[in-house]
Design a protein that fits this description.
The chain is α+β, with helices and mostly antiparallel strands and 300 residues long. It has 2 domains: 25-123; 129-291, Beta Barrel (Thrombin, subunit H). 38% of the residues lie in helices and 25% in strands. It has helices at 3-9, 14-119, and strands at residues 129-136, 145-148, 161-164, 167-175, 180-184, 191-196, 202-207, 212-217, 221-223, 229-232, 247-250, 262-269, 274-277, 287-291. It has a 6-stranded antiparallel β-barrel. It is elongated, with a radius of gyration of 43 Å.
Length: 300
């Protein structure tokens, strides 16, 4: 017979048999309580340790990062300094180029005046402008009209041309007493007689409901940027090639827009159409120039 069988065969006192199950339950609950207590204190200690470690790590990291931040700040300052220097140098170069172009422009203007005087060309009347504040600018490429803060009280009339820095923006289509509405050149309802800078090709520039405009060539006559006819193309004679980057000027035909003002620049040429883009930022309009209507002199 095995030992434990012998022990189990020994008859225990009745009191022990009565207390032993209750004692086991008590010991179980006490062990569970002590285990929970130890677990709580252990977790609390771990949390405090982790917090202390995190604070120490953050302090050390911040302390180690300070020299790097200082170096980054100094580097950014130096880069900004050299960037300003480069921009200043670029502006000086551009200023030098513009001065040279200005001198050339003055020489060409003087030569043009001499030739006009020899040919007895009638001097064109320079249009007069009035500066008007924009009160409702186009906030979207798909919005093709703007509101101006002047109207009939200031002499604004329907069909008056509107310019920005001597570039055509559009024309007045509606006039109130103190405000008016401008139809932009990018609107499909806008049609402007134009002439190209170098090729001399003329046509009608129309909006395309986008930032681009399209030229429809309608004549065979070549016209200069001043609006004067140069010569007509003969039968079989090919039209001069239109180059990308050519400036597009108003031809003055129709009498709505003044002659020789920039409308845009050619950005794409295809066998069927010529695409033009305005150089005016339609989203940043503040003040525009409205062309005053020309009044015929009164004879005495």
């Amino acid at each position: 017979m095995k030992p434990w069988m012998i022990l189990s065969a020994v008859k225990r006192p009745q009191t022990v048999n009565y207390l032993w199950p209750r004692l086991k339950i008590s010991l179980f609950f006490m062990s569970a309580f002590l285990l929970s207590l130890l677990t709580y204190f252990d977790a609390h200690l771990q949390t405090k340790s982790r917090s202390a470690l995190l604070d120490a790590t953050a302090f050390i990291t911040d302390l180690c990062r300070w020299p790097a931040q200082t170096g980054s700040f100094l580097t950014a300052s130096l880069v900004s300094h050299f960037d300003v220097y480069e921009k200043n140098k670029k502006l000086r170069d551009e200023n030098r180029t513009l001065r040279a172009q200005h001198s050339l422009t003055l020489a060409l203007a003087a030569e043009n005046n001499r030739l006009r005087n020899k040919l007895k060309v009638i001097k064109e009347i320079e249009p007069e402008f009035s500066s008007v504040r924009v009160i409702g600018a186009a906030k979207s490429p798909y919005q093709h009209n703007v509101l101006l803060g002047s109207g009939k009280k200031e002499g604004i009339q329907v069909k008056s041309a509107v310019l920005v820095d001597r570039q055509i923006l559009g024309r007045i289509i509606e006039v109130g007493n103190y405000s008016c509405r401008v139809l932009l050149i990018t609107d499909p309802q806008s049609h402007i007689p134009i002439v190209l800078e170098k090729s001399g090709v003329q046509g009608i520039l129309s909006g395309d409901n986008s930032s681009l405009m399209r030229i429809r060539v309608v004549e065979k006559t070549l016209i200069s940027s001043t609006g004067n006819a140069v010569h007509s193309l003969k039968e079989g004679e090919q039209r001069p090639k239109v180059a990308k980057g050519e400036y597009v000027f108003s031809s003055g035909q129709g009498g709505v827009f003044p002659t020789g003002f920039v409308v845009g620049r050619v950005v794409e040429v295809t066998p069927h159409e010529i695409l033009v883009q305005s150089m005016i930022d339609m989203m940043q309009l503040e003040y525009v120039q409205v062309v005053k209507p020309y009044e015929e002199p009164v004879d005495d």
